[in-house]
Design brief:
This protein is α/β, with parallel strands linked by helices. The chain folds into two domains: 195 residues, HUPs (Rossmann fold, 3-Layer(aba) Sandwich); 102 residues, GMP Synthetase, Chain A, domain 3 (2-Layer Sandwich), CATH 3.30.300.10. Helices cover 41% and strands 18% of the residues. The radius of gyration is 20 Å and the shape is globular. The structure holds xanthosine-5'-monophosphate. Xanthosine-5'-monophosphate binds next to loops.
Length: 325
């Protein structure tokens, strides 16, 4: 009779045997997976040996850095390294419009900063690198066995020179790699990770970078963050959030004409996306009650002055992907 408690004990035993007294470094993205991985390490190892590194790329959701920091401190994190690198990411993305070029720029900069900051920590060579990789991540990035590997978009979460070197040295820890998303959430609840984090919808590694179509700027990040936060908080208020597998807003590279009072207004167009899914490999459009959609649209255009028009994306996966880029 397999339970999550057994899983935690198994991880504790296997980590004790492998890691011994060496430090473990976990790269935290702010999502459910890496935060639960962090909780699991803090629970099963001496917290003094656990280093958590989180990069605030400026492409995060509203209040994300604060939420993650609070959650991890509550879990007993003692070495939490938060790297503020918004300016570096915005500079790197300047002028880039092509989705794959943007993904590559973000992924490459992630790696550069990661190497620089990990070196700055000065951990002994014997340290272990932990990742919040799930079973489905391994399948989607082509490393899975048993299912046909798909690589539609470049994912930067699974591989990097640092990860490859550690893998070669046999010093990678992926304590969630046999779990699906719903099991990770169950584990998170058992480990008393903040409910805000545990129920959080998945968020792509490149963050808002792939939800602002075309060139990414600080101004657009701020507009999208506000609109997305309104959408998400309304879903929670209306008890729809947990029925939906993933919901978010996308800022289109289009402006359209509208009216504000009796003046003509030229505002950005926002798309809302909400889907149901088992694992993100396929997805259906969430059949929104019209009333909620209309009310949310009004709230967004009232509160975010730069947005003039809101649309709802009614495409399933396939043929569309969940993200727009
Ligand atoms: P797509 O857009 O490929 O997304 O249908 C499937 C799921 O993966 C997420 N996604 C990513 N996650 N790094 C990630 O960690 C990425 O580069 C990435 N791109 C997409 C997406 O949000 C959805 O949940």
């Amino acid at each position: 009779n397999w339970t999550m408690e057994h899983y935690v004990e198994e991880v504790r035993r296997s980590l004790a045997a492998r890691v011994e007294k060496n430090p473990v470094l976990l790269l935290i993205s702010g999502g459910v997976d890496s935060t639960v991985a962090g909780a699991l390490l803090l629970k099963t190892l001496d917290p003094d040996h656990v280093h958590l590194m989180y990069m605030d790329t400026g492409l995060m959701r509203k209040d994300e850095t604060k939420t993650v920091k609070v959650a991890l401190e509550k879990l007993g994190a003692r070495h939490l390294h938060i790297i503020h690198c918004e300016d570096e990411f915005l500079a790197k993305l300047k002028g880039l419009e092509d989705p794959e070029a943007k993904r590559k720029a973000i992924g490459d900069l992630f790696i550069t900063i990661q190497e620089r900051e990990v070196a700055r920590l000065g951990l002994p060579d014997s340290y272990f690198l932990a990742q919040g990789t799930l079973y489905t991540d391994l399948i989607e990035s082509g490393k899975g066995v048993g299912k046909k590997a798909h690589l539609i978009k470049s994912h930067h979460n699974v591989g990097s020179p640092l990860v490859d070197a550690k893998r070669k040295a046999g010093r990678i820890i992926e304590p969630l790699d046999k779990l699906y998303k719903d099991e990770v959430r169950a584990l998170g609840r058992l480990l008393v990770v903040d409910e805000e984090v545990v129920r959080r919808h998945p968020f792509p590694g490149p963050g808002l970078g792939v939800r602002i179509l075309g060139e990414v700027t600080k101004e657009k990040c701020d507009i999208l963050r506000e609109a997305d936060a309104i959408f998400i908080s309304e879903l929670k208020k209306r008890n729809l959030y947990d029925e939906i597998w993933q919901a978010f807003a996308v800022l289109l590279p289009i402006r359209s004409v509208g009216v504000a009072g009796d003046v003509r207004k030229y505002g950005w167009v926002l798309a809302l996306r909400a889907i149901t899914s088992a694992d993100g490999m396929t997805a259906d459009v969430y059949p929104f009650p019209t009333k909620d959609l209309l009310e949310i649209s009004t709230l967004i255009t009232n509160e975010v002055q730069d947005i003039g028009r809101v649309t709802y994306d009614i495409s399933s996966k396939p043929p569309a992907t969940i993200e727009w880029e």
